[in-house]
Amino acid sequence: xxxxxxxxxxxxxxxxxxxxxxxxxxxxxxxxxxxxxxxxxxxxxxxxxxxxxxxxxxxxxxxxxxxxxxxxxxxxxxxxxxxxxxxxxxxxxxxxxxxxxxxxxxxxxxxxxxxxxxxxxxxxxxxxxxxxxxxxxxxxxxxxxxxxxxxxxxxxxxxxxxxxxxxxxxxxxxxxxxxxxxxxxxxxxxxxxxxxxxxxxxxxxxxxxxxxxxxxxxxxxxxxxxxxxxxxxxxxxxxxxxxxxxxxxxxxxxxxxxxxxxxxxxxxxxxxxxxxxxxxxxxxxxxxxxxxxxxxxxxxxxxxxxxxxxxxxxxxxxxxxxxxxxxxxxxxxxxxxxxxxxxxxxxxxxxxxxxxxxxxxxxxxxxxxxxxxxxxxxxxxxxxxxxxxxxxxxxxxxxxxxxxxxxxxxxxxxxxxxxxxxxxxxxxxxxxxxxxxxxxxxxxxxxxxxx
Length: 451
Prior knowledge:
Blueprint: E1 8-10, E2 16-18, H1 35-48, H2 53-58, H3 62-77, H4 84-97, H5 101-113, H6 129-133, H7 135-143, H8 150-156, H9 165-188, H10 235-247, H11 255-271, H12 282-285, E3 308-309, H13 315-326, H14 330-343, E4 348-349, E5 352-353, H15 358-371, E6 374-375, H16 382-387, H17 390-401, H18 408-413, H19 420-450
Parallel strand pairs: 3-6
Antiparallel strand pairs: 1-2, 4-5
Helix pairs in contact: 1-3, 3-14, 4-5, 4-9, 8-19, 9-17, 9-19, 13-14, 13-19, 14-19, 15-17, 15-19
């Protein structure tokens, strides 16, 4: 089985172009000798009647994969307020916002298998009003979650085609899950399985190794051009910086200084240029309205929209309990997945062992929250600039905010000394931090509506 960037891709002229990933580096093989991973693969196969590439890539991190499979199975096939075909249609709507054919095609098939009306697959204009009413929240959460308010929740729960709060909660979890999963799929270059529609293809099919369209031969799609001024921080230097942070005994900065550092990181993120747009896939655009509505740097809107202070509304103190209250057990499953991802470590970096990666992992998680306007008062955002070099920041921003624009060049250009499994680990953090950020805004809106 192969991944997106490991394929023999058909180019526009009909010739094949080899993308230079070594095939055996891309996925954990289905016949792996690791018993724990093999058991998870069997479970995934029994759940889905296939072993998906997503699962094989996550197989590098079995502790996470176990949480992922339990959570996704529960939200799609377990007890819950939404009908099964609704769940898969919501997955389609969410994945389409990031133009992810892998997920759209997969859940179109699951939608039909679960008794869905094939007429609905003509697009979002052909579904019941109840689902159409969900679209505005889908759009906002996918790109600018800070815009969601209690009025959006109120609109869903009023009228003839109203949603119950339990149904709203279920829908919010599905939307945020599949927005984030689309980022993971693009970030790791995962392609559809060979037996599916569009299997072993790349959209657009004419992207070459350096991210340049061989059709137009014009601009690179990469958001992180490499230059002499963007020299990458090596692992040894990064380890030295992490060690220095743990050993520093300087006086703790004031809250005023901490806020200043947070705003600086946000402003610097806004300066990173967005990757160039790529052609949209026509059969996905049936499920997209207002395609021009995309991510907008929060730092540019900060004067209009207040920063979300995690100390005022956090997942641990408020979000977890509200999720469980409205959708039984989902809060527990999500909390386990978030915690596992945040704490996941093998104490390695590249070929180095016995490395405490806590500060590095924390800086990635909080940098993503910063891009969505979420501030942790107890975190020194000065660490972000010390530990995350420019190419890694560019990659994080593209995968999180514009996943459909990620190229192999973006993947190759960050942390070149990292193993493939470590880059997958980074993408797991991007996915879960993004989902949590979206959920925090959504849950706060639900709480405000309820009170």
